[in-house]
Amino acid sequence: MGDLREVSGLKNNLDLQQYSFINQLCYETALHWYAKYFPYLVVIHTLIFMVCTSFWFKFPGTSSKIEHFISILGKCFDSPWTTRALSEVSGENHKGPTAGRAMVTVAAAAGPGKAGEGEKEKVLVEPEKVVTEPPAVTLLDKKEGEQAKALFEKVKKFRVHVEEGDILYTMYIRQMVLKVCKFFAILVYNLVYVEKISFLVACRVETSEVTGYASFCCNHTKAHLFSKLAFCYISFVCVYGITCLYTLYWLFHRPLKEYSFRSVREETGMGDIPDVKNDFAFMLHLIDQYDSLYSKRFAVFLSEVSESRLKQLNLNHEWTAEKLRQKLQRNARGRLELALCMLPGLPDTVFELSELEALRLEAICDITFPPGLLQLVHLQELSLLHSPARLPFSSQVFLRDRLKVIRVKCEELREVPLWVFGLRGLDELHLEGLFPPELARAATLESLRELKQLKVLSLRSNAGKVPASVTDVAGHLQRLSLHNDGARLLALNSLKKLAVLRELELVACGLERIPHAVFSLGALQELDLKDNHLRSIEEILSFQHCRKLVTLRLWHNQIAYVPEHVRKLRGLEQLYLNHNKLETLPPQLGMCSGLRLLDVSHNGLRSLPAELGLLQNLQHLALSYNALEFLPDELFSCRKLRTLLLGYNHLRQLSPQVGALRALSRLELKGNRLEALPEELGHCGGLKKAGILVEDTLYEGLPAEVRDRMEVE
Fold first, then answer.
1. Residue (of 120, 438, 145, 185) closest to 306 by Cα position
2. Would you tell me which of 270, 501, 610, 650 could form a disulfide with 632, CB atoms 3.0–4.6 Å apart?
3. Read out DSSP for 148-206?
């Protein structure tokens, strides 16, 4: 045996270093990429799925719509008005007991938060236990009513905004198609490469010079775990993919850009609930996948009928019968009148005021008179000013013989309700509105044949001629007023048939001459030609054929002179020539011995004829706003004169003969150049301080005893 030597030197563990080097080299070069990066692939795919799923919740153009919709949907679901509206419909559609077993909806009473749960709870009961009473209708207070009203406005604006586009629908489809494509890609390559995950990995490394070996058999320590996880991952991806495929099928097997509330309309009886489209329809389809009850309750706020009911309820809360009674006043005709203006509707409480005699409605849209109208047994006068109204047949029958006066004002005369022309007990009909330009010349008006008792007809429009239907009431019409707002009235021949007409107004009709048709009206007592373009009134002579004419109004024209044959109008009692261009008056005017009122104010008169003193019946004389510098003494011979208006002229003195006017009770002198008032004013026994209009300095200049006499009541 040889000698045994102990090996000595530095121990460097070279074998372990070689093993570590070869192990790392084999992991990088020999191990398949799928087995190497499998965990990272799972994370990346999961992130992609998450982004695809939640992108529309983060994108501003879609997330804002979704959040707004969810907010409104929750408020609609919890709103007390929704419960009330559905309860009312349930009560109206309620039927008696039915054979067999029945489903009874148990309403939750725990509060609005559990309203949905309560409405979904179904309980089977025996036929004899079916609830036959309609559900109780909850009362809304004012705050809840205002909240529901605001909710209607939000739903309207949201619908208009969301129905304009389909970005939600498009984005949802795109992200779903992307997820399905991603699913197939993941499934295919995972099934192909899952077998690449193995525990033993053959590896060839050119290290024979160092280690003496070139081929190695390495082991992948996590291969068993990764293999199991890969199959689990594929299983989960398959489940998710099947869900995506079903969603894609759901998206395309029926149109989701249209949503019909047909079943809701049939169930609730709200036939005006509109169908919706685009993104609005798509979101409702989505919410139906959770619970269709949300859409049903949301539909209440799409119904105009429901909104009108709510407005009516709020109106009734705000306008109680007691509050309305405080607004009752006597109108010019002495009738007890209620005037309502610019309300969203007509309160039902109006019809509790059985004492009402006149009703004036202004700027109130879409009025439908309820059956409660039959309670207004004293109603005689109705005014509808820019307030279109519908009247049920039963109410038409009720008003047909009761209503005496009706006023209708609208944009166009064709908007006048037809039932107006069937009120056969009507005494006065006042219409205001325009004819369309193409119909103005024809001026066609509805037939007035049914108005057997009509005595007064007033028409304010732009008619080119007197409507032919006026002759339908020629046998009993006593007053006709045509106000044309400056439009020229060309044809007036129909006036000749109005044999019993007493009063005629042709205001702002563009007339340049007094119409000859007027002279055929033998029963005419008053004629008003205000605001026309009259320059000459030579035809005034023909008024002698109108033997009953007592009032002639030619005011607000451009008349430059009065013809001498005005003397023929001896029966005339009132003559209005104010607001014209008169500079003189004819002496023959003094021969109109029947004149009680003469108004020539707002002209350019510089002097007056002495013959005015012949008007012994004159009681009212208006000379204001002229250029008079003196008054003839003969004027003070009109002993019956009660009103003398001389304001704003150029008078420098007032004749002491004014004291002869014993009946004078009103005297206007303000705006002249007077230096003093005659003390003879004290002889005017009817003249008091309140009846004399003059500068304070002039009044104070009167003797004290005269002033004392005037100030005695």
1. 145
2. 610
3. HHHHHHHHHHHHHHHTT--HHHHHHHHHHHHHHHHHHHHHHHHHHHGGG--SEEEEE--
Residue 13 host element (H or E): none
CA distances from 355 to 321, 326, 351, 384, 400 (A): 12, 13, 10, 20, 19
d(CA 294, CA 285): 11
Residue with tokens 């079943």, as numbered in its chain = 263
Q: Which of 133-137, 619-623, 687-691 has the highest mean pLDDT?
A: 619-623
pLDDT at residue 700 is higher than 60: yes
Cβ atoms of residues 352 and 375 within 8 Å: yes
Reported as a single tens digit per residue, the pLDDT across 184-221 is 888 888 888 888 777 777 777 776 655 666 677 777 77
Count other C-beta atoms under 10 Å from residue 481's C-beta. 16
Closest CA to 165 of 283, 280, 264, 268: 280
What tokens does 639 get?
């002993």
Q: How far apart are CA 711 and CA 687, in angstroms?
A: 9
Q: Which residues pair with 258 in a beta bridge?
A: 277
Selected residue with higher pLDDT from 573 and 84: 573
Q: What's the CA gap between 39 and 61, in Å, rounded?
A: 35
pLDDT of residue 528 exceeding 60: yes
**How is residue 538 written in tokens?**
């030579």
Phi/psi of residue 470, each to 5°?
A: -60, -30
Look at strands 215-219 and 200-204 and give their pairing. antiparallel
**In contact, 507 and 530? CB cutoff 8 Å:** yes
**Residue 331, C-beta contacts closer than 8 angstroms, at least 6 positions apart:** 337, 358, 360, 381
Q: Give 277's strand partners.
A: 258
Residue 556: per-residue pLDDT: 95
Residue 668 phi/psi, 5-degree rounding, is -110, 120
Q: What is the pTM of this model?
A: 0.70
- 127-141, 150-164, 259-273, 505-519, range with the lowest pLDDT: 127-141
Lowest-confidence region among 237-246, 501-510, 627-636: 237-246
482: Cβ contacts below 8 Å, ≥ 6 apart: 459, 460, 463, 466, 489, 505, 506, 507, 509
CA distance 632 to 608: 7
